[in-house]
Amino acid sequence: MEPGTIDNLSILYQSSDFIVVNKHWDIRIDSKMWYETLTLQSQLRHRFPELADPDTYYGFRFCHQLDFSTSGALCVALNKAAAGSAYKCFKERLVTKAYLALVRGHVSQSWMTIRYAIGKNTTEGRTHMMCIDGTEGCENPKPCQSELIVLEHGSYSGDPVTKVLLQPLTGRTHQLRVHCSAIGHPIVGDFTYSLGQDSSPYRMMLHAYYLRIPTRGELIEVCAPDPFVPAMDGNWEPQHVTRRLEDTIQELK
User: Fold this and answer.
1) What's the chain's Rg over C-alpha atoms?
2) Which of 97-101, 133-137, 205-209, 218-222 has the lowest mean pLDDT?
3) Which of 67, 190, 198, 233 does the annotation list as catalytic?
4) How confident is the model at residue 53 (pLDDT cuts 50, 70, 90)?
5) Pseudouridine synthase RsuA/RluA-like domain: which residues (predicted)?
């Protein structure tokens, strides 16, 4: 629950071609704003100044993206060839990603596939958001698919919540956040998709837990430690386990 600092960068994996970090929940990957000096890119420059690539704008090549308020596994390529190899895996859909989340309410189905098409929200005041097909102002919706697996039912600050594993099978912006909101179980602490209502938790409860990238030169496979445990956040009280996280990840593999 500690805020991010320039020197609290957590490394999950490192080789001559890649670094996988456990991104902090309140740090952007990069920023063009002069006042926003604490970013993942600045953390990397601070920790690994010798690895920064002068041929890139940010000094490091990020193989994929995580939202500002999402924590977890993020892969960074250390040279152009490695980046190309990773990008090819993403393009050919060889990458496996799974996220942990706490969502509002008790999800009744133990496993569900969410298939709402997602587009850009053109409604005034909401242009920073995405939306599902059929809602007013939803522009250019594209097919999307996410898997949701229930792990535990419990409560957060006394309110019913469910701990779930989410797997995005497509890669639309804000996909998991929009899909959870669309089924009536928005992610705890998602200020944007609760339309400013869910503001009391200290963070949005979405975490990139598992990442597998089978690049040409090496297999990258990491788990970023689960932050949604009572020892880390006493507001979260598990009450009933439906599936063990470890077993579920083994099935995904």
Assistant:
1) 18
2) 133-137
3) 67
4) confident
5) 18-182
SS3 62: strand
**Of the candidates 121, 184, 116, 187, which has an alpha carbon nearest to the alpha carbon of residue 156?**
187
N-terminal to C-terminal alpha carbon distance within the chain: 30
What burial class does residue 192 get, using C-beta atoms within 10 Å of its C-beta: 0-12 exposed, 13-18 middle, 19+ buried? buried
17 is catalytic: no
Residue showing tokens 């989340």: 101
168 CB-contact burial (10 Å; exposed 0-12 / middle 13-18 / buried 19+): middle
CATH number of 10-251: 3.30.2350.10
| Residue 37: other Cβ atoms inside 10 A | 9
The identity of residue 146, as a single letter, is: S
- Count of all residues that appear for the chain in the document: 253
Arithmetic mean of pLDDT, 191-202: 90
Type of residue at 64? H
Q: What's the CA gap between 160 and 9, in Å, rounded?
A: 33
Domain ranges for the chain: 10-251
